[in-house]
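We close this part of the discussion by returning to an individual protein. Part of our work consisted of pairing the sequence of a single chain with a tokenised description of its backbone. No coordinates are needed to read the tokens, only the vocabulary itself. The amino acid sequence and the backbone structure tokens for this protein are reproduced below:
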Amino acid sequence: MNKYLKLLSIFLFFLSVETKAAPNIAAKTAILIDYHTNKILFEIEPDMSIYPASMTKIMTSIIAFDLLKNGKISLDDKVVISDKAWRMSQAGYSSMFIMVNDQISIENLLKGIIIASGNDACVALAEGIAGTEENFAEMMTEKAIEIGMENTNFTNASGLNDPDNFSTVRDIAIMSKYLIQNYPTYYEYFKELEFTWDRTGGDPITQSNRNRLLFKNIGVDGIKTGHLAVEGYSLASTIQKDTRRLIAVGSGFKTMSARTKESNKLLSWGLINSLTYEISKKNVTNFEIKTWLGKQTLVN
């Protein structure tokens, strides 16, 4: 038995020292992590302070998911739309196109936030849950601290321009993993390709998910795009292949198409140039592992 363990140790040692050329990613700041091991596979200035833009909406969703999971609210609960929330749909921002005094379900607001990136839906949900968006933002920051986001502060639910609404790609990766790990049922919203809102006073509006990686059929199932003129384009993305999942976050992409292309490059590089090995299981003494250039694909 010791002989085999020694051989395995040598094998894993050689894997650990093998180097691969890092990808050339055109972003100001980026990070790529392995979901199951938290191993950082790639990074560019991961603790640089950024304006997270609509990636902020990941935390907005988490607050609602927490309350849903604990039975404090339900998907069918209705929120009455305020003048403030309605005005967010009139100012040229990403919108769900809600109307004053509409009564909209929590589920539709969440879809409006996650799929259509509606800033109006963010304000409506925040007010429906916490009374004011300011109170809701405090809940968001408290949650960020709770889950280990050390360089983040939230001042609104949408991520619109505010110098005090800031984060880092490392913190957004932490937030993204927390989302996927703790709310598997509600996380399904993030891979939906479109959302149709049967709005008041007009024809239904169908909007596509802004994360164009979802349409490439490569295993990407989230998470959230962002854009501010001062920050450029940003994206928190994740891909799942078999039992592996990687999370990438980047900000400072120059164009919308570059955001998609560079994030795809980063995720693909991670899958090609890294691999996780399961070397033990609790209460199991005999199990299979994949070989590398072996005569057999699997050995015990």
Summary: The two ends are 12 Å apart (CA to CA). DSSP finds eight helices and eleven strands in the chain. The first helix runs from residue 2 to 17. Helices lie at 2-17, 57-69, 83-87, 106-114, 119-130, 133-146, 169-182, 256-273.
